[in-house]
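Hi again,

Forgot to attach this to my earlier email, sorry! This is the prediction with pyridoxal-5'-phosphate bound. I've pasted everything inline since the attachment limit keeps bouncing my files.
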Amino acid sequence: MRPYQVGRQLADVARAHGLDPGEIVKLTANEGPEGPFPGVVEAAATVLANSNRYPDNDCWDLGHELADQLGVEFSNLMFGAGSVALLDEFGTAMGGPGTNFVYGWPSFIMYRFVSLWGGAQSREVPLDDAFSLDLAAMRQAVDDDTTMVIVCNPNNPTGTIKPADEIEAFIDSVPPDVLVVVDEAYHEFVTDPTYRTEIPLALERPNVVVLRTFSKIYALAGLRVGYAVARADLLTELRKAQAPLTVNQVAQAAARATLGLPDELDRRRNLNEARRHHLVGALAEREIPMAQSHTNFIYFALGEEADDIIETMTAQGVLIRGMGGGWVRVTIGHEDDNRRFIEAIDLARRR
Ligand SMILES: Cc1ncc(COP(=O)(O)O)c(C=O)c1O
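Structure tokens for the complex follow:
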């Protein structure tokens, strides 16, 4: 087994290529290019002085505010140190000898690790020709030993979405003793009217949980806060596999301060959409094949030269992520980042 690769450290890249770390454009991890929402740093700083105390294990203040915003009960929420931590805990709860987990592929790489750590076999179901989840094939992959299915909507790394009615028909077709995790890490970026959150379904069904994160549009990736929404009875079971006190108090305060700023959320969504539109146009002009993104990243093909192109771009201080098979993923950055990305890719492809 190989450990998860978080990508090269900026200082490392800078040293290797004689660059100043400040001039490196990191477009590898689908982070927000802007800092936290207004007022968040100040709110987080005020709780640092209480660092001698353990954090609130229930995330009471954050949880009540978020419950109000989502229109759910506090008991419908479970927090983790990033949604990855929650996924890991669900894998621990649902895995074990003889079990398998079903998910699309390519999808979020951590699903593979979560299966391994949980002691479950991975069933990776290839995406369809439009780089979207093939829900019919995923249904076929579910058998008597399947205990968890992960539906990544929008899907990382392709940025594609599935309409809500198709997701709901899929969930209806899965046996009710199989946990269905709908990973909505990029939910807030989507503007397409066929897309909808599965939170209402999760509140009804005993086997559905929706995962969200503060790491993407909310720009708190460095503080590690994610949450799950489900029926309280399901969360009571899943919590049995959770280590206590994993969401620290700085993260709780920051996440709470991020809520209640809908204008800022809209601003970031609109900015991302405009920037994505620009980048998609630039890639299309160059006749570079790509998947239809609804998120803050784009999945596109560079073919056999992908690794060389990535290396040449890295030497120029522009980092994107190779996904295998000649495909790569770029995170949408600031206008300046995006300009550097286009310049670097042009230069690297001409070589
Ligand atoms: C689909 C998906 N789910 C979950 C996560 C993890 O986010 P977090 O930072 O909350 O652990 C990511 C991060 O890249 C992701 O792409």
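The mean pLDDT is 96. The chain has 13 helices and twelve strands.

That should be everything now.

G.
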